[in-house]
Amino acid sequence: MERSLVYVLDPIAPSAVATLRQSCDVVDHDDKRKGRWLEDADGVIVRTSKIPRDMIAAAQRLKVIGKHGVGVDNIDLDAARDRGVAVINTPGANSNAVAELAVGLALAVARRIALLDRMLRDGAVTSPPPQGIELTGRTVGVVGMGGVGRRTAALFKAAFGSTILAYDPFAPPEAFAAADAERCASLDELLPRVDVLTLHIPLNRDTEKLIDARRLALMKRDAMVLNLSRGGVVDETALHDALTNGTIAGAATDVFVQEPPPAGHPLLRLPGFVATPHIGAATAESMERMGMGVVGGVVTLLGGGTPDHRVV
Asked: What residue stretches are annotated with the D-isomer specific 2-hydroxyacid dehydrogenase catalytic domain (predicted)?
């Protein structure tokens, strides 16, 4: 029986590639043949590589696209659906890693950690240095109650005794109950009540620039915004204006519209802003879980089975 051919277009855990080789022929991300995947790939595995409509149309043998991670905005899902190409992902595998980063970014904003680190390295520490705030007892608003949102809520509650408010029109009631979260009927209801807003939602037509100037103006002046979803969910210009004008006190993001952002990006010049380069899921443990998960799904589908997490 002919073995399926799978191209791994982005780096994944070596153990996952080794597992994939047990069932399929593999062209790894560093193989010079990688660029030929349109000709003969039965499956591809991606992290951030874009798979647009024209590629899906050209890849006549393609049966499955495996997304290492949760967000699938780099894949043209409509084109995959039109061609009958399956798309799978790995929800839950990176939840803890992203949630831990959300807590870390919140602390970085609250205690001015990045600013104070830069001041210390530059020999520019003032006396007294800038003051921070404590997170204990603060109200946290979670937008998106999937695996990442629920885990983020749990960590804030365990670490700081946070009151959790949550908004997600698609999540079942048990998701809110499990997080001991008050379900808000609308985002506009949630925003004025929270000290920390943390975003964990996909980027699509409905969520693009969901957090805009109008919604930022609804928030408390001492509140902070954390974006660990996708850059386009927050209007970056509006966020810059809100931080500059004191509409909100601080913000942190792991994601930008353009990645990596240019060195002169206006947000990177602001003292109340903290950023990381889309590394929410980049822990050794999470990479292992996502790698094994996406490989397992691809192998299952190519073998005629039903994968656990099929998007299309």
From this structure: 6-311
Positive or negative, the Cα torsion across 52, 254, 97, 164?
negative
Side chain identity at 58, as an amino acid letter?
A: A
Ramachandran angles phi, psi of 274, nearest 5° = -125, 140
Helix spans in 41-91 (H): 53-58, 77-83
Q: At a CB cut-off of 8 Å and minimum separation 6, what does 155 contact?
A: 99, 100, 102, 103
User: In the sheet where 224-227 sits, what is the strand order?
Assistant: 182-183, 163-167, 139-143, 196-199, 224-227, 250-253, 273-275
d(CA 53, CA 206): 21
pLDDT at 1 over 80: no
Measured CA to CA, the distance from residue 256 to residue 233 in angstroms comes to 9
CA 210 to chain centre: 15
CB burial of residue 233 (10 Å; 0-12, 13-18, 19+): buried
Res. 2 pLDDT band, cuts 50 70 90: confident
Give the H or E element holding residue 5: strand 5-8
pTM: 0.91
**Active-site residue numbers?**
230, 259, 278
DSSP 218-261: TS-TT-EEEE-S-GGGB-HHHHHHHHHHTSSSEEEES--SSSSP
How many of the other CB atoms lie within 10 Å of CB of 66?
29
- DSSP H stretches of helix in the chain: 14-21, 37-40, 53-58, 77-83, 95-110, 113-121, 147-160, 173-178, 187-190, 213-216, 236-245, 284-302
In 3D space, the residue among 304, 303, 301 whose CA is nearest the CA of residue 312 turns out to be 301
Q: Which whole number is the average pLDDT over 261-272? A: 95
